[in-house]
Design goal:
- There is one protein chain.
- 36% of the residues are buried.
- Helices cover 0% and strands 47% of the residues.
- It has 192 residues and is mostly beta strands.
Length: 192
């Protein structure tokens, strides 16, 4: 059992707010956080589950301006030994055995991430306009292997403001459908 009170730490002298944890073993997790100065910056650190100690350094390439270069508030995903973590317009792919980070730039803000029943990692990308928004699948290295524009018309473009960083995305465990929430509406689609 972990509570936010157990995870007191700072980044560059500023208190941090834990926002998401992904557990990768009995002894190790990754912690996504934002700084307490109105979430000006964010990053990802290693959390030792035996001692509840947060590492003093961010994983390479995950710290920076919140939802621009730093970690995006929202879900990280663990699959096949790697953690997939949105960092603004890039995807950080973290090797859970070595903590090595590879970043893949998409040029669009990553708004959500989920693993489909097909085993692919799916991401929502916001381009600033309804025609630019899309959903993509990535391989184990974070490279796009499939993608499509939404098969439905969104009432509004997906927000690119950093304070509105999350769009709900999840998948069915039995069918190939991806489910997306945007504002008060929910959509389903069969990505290709």
């Amino acid at each position: 059992k972990i509570s936010a009170a157990d995870l007191n730490f700072t980044a560059n002298g500023v208190d941090c707010w834990p926002q998401h944890i992904v557990v990768v073993s009995d002894t190790k997790a990754y912690l996504q956080y934002a700084t307490s100065d109105w979430e000006a910056n964010s990053g990802i650190r290693v959390l030792d589950l035996n001692t509840l100690t947060v590492s003093s350094e961010d994983l390479q390439g995950t710290y920076g301006q919140f939802s621009v270069a730093g970690a995006t508030k929202g879900r990280m995903l663990f699959s096949k030994g790697k953690v997939y973590a949105p960092c603004g317009q890039s995807l950080a792919v973290i090797d859970a055995a070595t903590d090595e980070v590879t970043k893949v730039d998409y040029g669009m803000q990553i708004k959500g991430i989920a693993k489909g029943s097909d085993g692919k990692v799916w991401m929502i990308l916001a381009g600033g306009g309804v025609v630019d928004d899309k959903i993509v699948a990535v391989d184990e290295n974070g490279n796009e292997i499939a993608g499509t524009a939404f098969e439905f018309e969104l009432e509004d473009p997906l927000p690119t403001e950093t304070y509105m960083s999350i769009i709900g995305i999840c998948s069915s465990f039995t069918d190939d459908y991806i489910y997306i929430t945007h504002g008060p509406l929910a959509y389903s689609m069969l990505p290709t």
